[in-house]
Amino acid sequence: MASQPAVLPSNVHISKHPCLHAKLSQLRSATTSSRDTNRLIHEIALIVGCEALAGAVEVQKTGVGKTPLGYEYTTQTLTTPSIAIIPILRSGLGMVEAIQTLLPSPVPINHLGLFREPTTLLPVEYYNNLPQSQATHNRNPSAASLAILLDPVIATGGTGAAAIQTLREWGAHRVLVICVLGSVPGLKKAAEEWSDATEVWVGAVDEEVDERGMIKPGIGDVGDRLFLTLGK
Which residues face 147 on adjacent strands? Predict the structure, then answer.
């Protein structure tokens, strides 16, 4: 795990993987196609997700199995009671397959739709399909104990912070944020929203955002790049 810049909270973790940083350099280029953008987002999410999950879940011994040659081995499974993947629409969809690949068993995928109001840059929620059940002992039994929040870019941090607060109100015990790139102010805002129960894992950090709320130099609007809606 990388050493933390002094300006970032201790629950922000930055990847030092050299392959990730080489891939990020490719992703930054304006000449990278939509197909390659999708591939690079997936591959970077695999690297960051692998690092993030190593500290977020544990395994326990569950019994004995047999190999194809007849030898016995000890079976193991994750101890986390319930996990859910929550991509932020649209761009978070590009990271879902990577996290599914890492987890040993299928988990629910729920979605949050949030966009930034262009003038104020404040987050606006337009979709939420987090499952709800009648609360017992002041907790929603449908909420995941570990909510994995996927968003390729944390720029101003407003969307990330709003999503974390939504997951807290839903009843999640912990939130694991996985992103490709973040800005210093954005990561700080998201990480401090629910710092006791949130860990933020990011591929790399850029220092600032511009007047439009875009990371500088950044990787552009990932949703537009993934879904070929540039210039909408």
Answer: 84, 175
